[in-house]
């Protein structure tokens, strides 16, 4: 990646601080499909602007992704919340996918919470509406946000300390490996069988590139998937984006409460 990507993030962070009343943030959150109601459950916005007012951000093209950035005070923590993200399948390349993360890093954020909607590949222990902590990932997107010889360690991609803090809050939470594919078609049943054999517990189309960008910038990452459906071929039911969003709405209160407690404990 050329330096321009980092310079654009720096100018977006400067614009963010000018445009918002706050100029420092303890944590940044990215709310995935269906997670916007959970963000609303965190409390009223102290401030909120469309992301398109910041350099380098485009309007998210996916229903369920709002395209704003909001500041919420949770306890004595100030959270910068991206409502919506850019996905690889929107066809704009990798840079816009990680621009929000690089902007948060340039604004001084060192803790990043990534949320997403995921298909569950383990119906033995997963139900629709369950949050699952991401313990590790499989980057099957065929892309990487870092270009050039920057060899970023990914051993603890998803902070063990942050995971144990969240498990102290809710000991019933499961952990799983998240596999990211480029999408936007959902997987075939054969692909889901392959992913299960590869060790994937969750499957989706986001998060992993953002995690890599966050680790490159030295931030700690907490990843949480909401199981919005059981993955293709495991139930006999077809998959539907509206079902994914509805599962998010139904789980909003639980997710909002969990995030609120996690932010207070960070
Ligand atoms: N597959 C890929 N992405 C997803 C899914 C799925 O089953 N559910 C929500 N996002």
TrEMBL record:
Entry EC no(s): 2.4.2.1
Glycosyltransferase keyword on record: yes
Region forming the signal peptide: none
Annotated pathway: Purine metabolism; purine nucleoside salvage
Cited InterPro entries: Nucleoside_phosphorylase_d, Nucleoside_phosphorylase_sf, PUNP, Purine_phosphorylase
A Pfam family matched in the record: PNP_UDP_1
UniProt keyword list: Glycosyltransferase, Transferase
UniProt keyword Acetylation present: no
Chemical reaction(s) catalysed: a purine 2'-deoxy-D-ribonucleoside + phosphate = a purine nucleobase + 2-deoxy-alpha-D-ribose 1-phosphate
Location of the Nucleoside phosphorylase domain: 27-263
NCBIfam families assigned: PNPH-PUNA-XAPA, PRK08202.1, PUNP
Subunit structure: Homotrimer.
Protein purpose: The purine nucleoside phosphorylases catalyze the phosphorolytic breakdown of the N-glycosidic bond in the beta-(deoxy)ribonucleoside molecules, with the formation of the corresponding free purine bases and pentose-1-phosphate. Cleaves guanosine, inosine, 2'-deoxyguanosine and 2'-deoxyinosine.
Similarity comment: Belongs to the PNP/MTAP phosphorylase family.
Name by which UniProt lists this protein: Purine nucleoside phosphorylase
């Amino acid at each position: 990646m050329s330096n321009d990507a980092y310079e654009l993030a720096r100018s977006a962070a400067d614009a963010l601080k000018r445009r918002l009343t706050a100029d420092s943030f303890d944590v940044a959150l990215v709310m995935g499909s269906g997670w916007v109601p959970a963000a609303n459950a965190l409390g009223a916005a102290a401030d909120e602007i469309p992301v398109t007012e910041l350099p380098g951000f485009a309007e998210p093209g996916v229903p369920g992704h709002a395209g704003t950035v909001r500041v919420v005070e949770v306890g004595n923590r100030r959270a910068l919340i991206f409502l919506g993200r850019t996905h690889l399948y929107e066809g704009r390349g990798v840079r816009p996918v990680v621009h929000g993360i690089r902007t948060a890093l340039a604004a001084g954020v060192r803790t990043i919470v990534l949320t997403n909607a995921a298909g569950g590949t383990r119906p033995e222990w997963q139900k629709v509406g369950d949050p699952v902590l991401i313990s590790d990932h499989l980057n099957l997107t065929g892309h990487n946000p870092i270009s050039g010889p920057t060899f970023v360690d990914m051993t603890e991609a998803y902070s063990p300390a942050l995971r144990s803090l969240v498990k102290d809050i809710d000991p019933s939470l499961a952990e799983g490996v998240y596999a990211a594919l480029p999408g936007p078609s959902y997987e075939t049943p054969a692909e889901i069988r392959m992913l299960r054999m590869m060790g994937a517990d969750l499957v989706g189309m986001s998060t992993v590139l953002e995690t890599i960008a966050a680790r490159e910038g030295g931030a700690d990452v907490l990843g949480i998937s909401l199981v919005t459906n059981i993955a293709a071929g495991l139930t006999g039911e077809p998959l539907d984006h509206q079902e994914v969003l509805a599962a998010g709405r139904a789980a909003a209160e639980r997710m909002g409460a969990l995030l609120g407690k996690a932010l207070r404990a960070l």
